[in-house]
Amino acid sequence: MVFSLSNGFSDVYSMFRRNPAMNDVVKVIHKLSRKIVGKKGESTVKIMGFCGTHEWTITSYGLRYLMPSNVELIAGPGCPVCITPAYYVDVVIKLAMSNIRIFTYGDAYKLPGLARVGIRTLAEARARGADIEVVYSMMDAVHIAKKDRKESVFLAVGFETTAPSVVAPVVQGKIPRNLTIINVHRLTPPIAKYVFENVPEIPLNGVIAPGHVSTITGANAWKFIPEEFGIPTVIAGFEPLDVLLAILEIIRQIVEGKPKLVNEYSRAVSWSGNVKAQKLLNECCEEVDAAWRGIGFIPKSGLMFKDKYSEVDALKQYGIPELTPDEWKYDLPSGCRCADVTIGRSKPTDCRMFMKKCTLANPYGPCMVSMEGACTIWAKFGGSSLAAEVTREVGLNI
Ligand code: SF4
What we know:
This protein is α/β, with parallel strands linked by helices and 398 residues long. It has two domains: 155 residues, 3-Layer(aba) Sandwich (Rossmann fold), CATH 3.40.50; 142 residues, Rossmann fold. It has 17 helices and eleven strands. Iron/sulfur cluster binds next to α15.
């Protein structure tokens, strides 16, 4: 991808990854951080990156190791696969073993359920003869289902970013009769609120708000964080320079004592967002209280098809009950700390199974499956030995 930018940078690589300004940004972060003194003499600043891709950038580029000692970067709940309740995984496995084809994204293919039918993942179901198709999009599933007319179900997981691409063909009447959908989409502002209200042991001082999600919701969706919780918030892009600038802005606001919302990712995110996508979601779905894996039900955090679209709702079509708060049970495999990792209470390395019983090749818990899962990312890139190498690689000299 080549950009023509008037500032002389010829491509995205030099603009965001080898920009000499990164060195200066890190230096200013260090300088400003010396002015931070928290309550009761504490000086540790905790900044949560809500998006899994931000955690990817932070970890893969070693940004955590470029931070001053009093600035801690915490991974947040930005992995939709990690928080998909085990109930729905078990449901699709059961359907798959009943000779119904299952479409889903690659990330969900290895996602473990609770083996209610003796099979943990769709990958295992496929090994036993089930028809599982990994697709890139809802429209891929639509094209395949239209062609061969086989009875099929699409397991649709994701946040606001992917939901519009699933509901668009529903609203447009493009779903063939042999295809239905299990709608497990979740909304991100409610989980942010949940973290601020329910995880008092991490008093957050700053939030890097999700860039992808904000392209749909608009920046305005995050105004409540500084306004209701007094936490500096910056919507950031996903290049190292984006994240460093977001951290710098958050620390600047902390020092000045003036929390507000800043949109660093204005090249992709507008304040009102993608209004067309928002209309599609409102037309097709209603916001409902919904389960998050290992966490429980969070008010108005999920999307459910409205009654007028019940013909595409796989749960309704197959008479499968929706998961309710009364029936929800803690749904992580024994010993897995994925929920704590998801809400920032624990680091992946706090889990005694990290890289022992739970590995990239054999994930035991859901946070070790998706490219956006914190355990996956730490397993791929973690380790302090990376720091010097990364610092040298990105050309920083602090
Ligand atoms: Fe769960 Fe594995 Fe992460 Fe531990 S390392 S929290 S078992 S996903």
